[in-house]
Amino acid sequence: MAVAGSDPSTLAQVLQQQARLRGDAVALHFGDERITYAALDTRARRVATLLSRQWGVQAGDRVAWLGLNDPALLVLLFALARVGAMLLPLNIRLAPAEWQQQLDACTPRCLVHDAAFAEAARALGGAHALHATAELDAAVDPMDEDRAAASVPALLVFTSGTTSRPKAAVHTQANLVANMRIAAQVQAITPRDRVLTVLPLFHVGGLCIQTLPALSAGATVLLQPRFMPDATLQAIAGERPTLTLQVPATLKALIEHPAWANTDLSSLRAVWAGSSLLPASLLHAFHARGVPVCNVYGATETGPFSIALGPQEAMQRVGSCGWPAPGVEMQLAEGGEVWVRGPNVVARYWPDEPALDAQGWFHTGDLATRDADGACTIVGRAKDLIISGGENIHPAEIEAVLGEHPAVLECAAFGLPDAHWGEAVAVAVVLRPASGASDDELRAHLAARLARFKLPRHWLRVEQLPKTALGKVQRHELVKRLRG
Q1: Which InterPro entries does the record associate with it (predicted)?
Q2: Which of 155, 281, 412, 435 sits CB 3.0–4.6 Å from 407 for a disulfide?
């Protein structure tokens, strides 16, 4: 148990502390349901007993989740943490075969699913038992003991697998609690805040950038099952959140929605965006309405709250991802690769593959530049760097300029093997419907803004870019299409 007045070291202590300090305050607002901190703590204690006594979940076990955002997922996380077991949230955007691979790799004792994914859950094979979320409501006996220590793993989250096979990052309770503290401090989250969560909780972005930090600070989380632009804008106008987390795709959907212009955004003191590269046009649309869009940089392995650009600098430093968060160290290694070290960074992948080097650094694979005052700007991925004729070319630079053309919906630059140049710059372009822009027009747009050696030699028109389930462009697939 945490000593009165001391900082919590486990997830159970985090929730217990808020239940003691502000038990009657609303922790979660989900549809018509409002769950106080006292009720959330009680639910987590009861489910911990259910897990332990009836479902046979023991310390070290894994329990998978397949479903939309739901208070039950958060209850399950806190309950498992009290038992000393781990939550494995499955990405609902994956194919069944990919879910099966993750289940086979982590061998959970059981799989909890919501009503929307009941059929999909039943179709999955394996030795795990199946439980519907409604079964969690049957728990009645609260568990008083906290069987876990800070060093005990509590969360398994698979990486996107853009450079290798997906791996499950092992987040200990200490990692999660440290990330909560860091994220809450940088975002200045207080009990007065109302945090709108629309991004998926199966990813560390939706779960760990704002949702868990908000709960650790005693704020109210306005939880929605999934992102829908109309519902999000309605929530901003009606529920008056002070903070929300978005990504470029959702920012774009909000700006392009018919209700955008007339939606009252005045309650928002900031929008945070979980992306290393943010298109300037999206940021300017919010900034023009007085809402700063802040940037948080990180990875599945880094908490993810590692480097942040706060509201004070957001409007003046568009494109930057800011400075290392308190307690997080960062260095630019050879070639400009970002290395991160801190208490929120995982040490291993499941089951026991090191995630860090001998000195405790996580090698992100992202390339960055650093200003004189220490602010960082991500310029691309090391694996995506194009080396043509001895020149280093970052795809992100080409994409940012080409993306400014009004006819371009999306684009991706990549290197194509070339006998003379080593690599030649290529670009895949998705045009807006009925735009009618020619390749010559797009070439002229780039030629007026970029050095000649950066100009694409190969152009590929596509209806959509191949992406991973988390929205990352699969450039190797574009290379195949041009070479095929």
Answers
A1: AMP-bd_C, AMP-bd_C_sf, AMP-binding_CS, AMP-dep_synth/lig_dom, ANL_N_sf
A2: 435
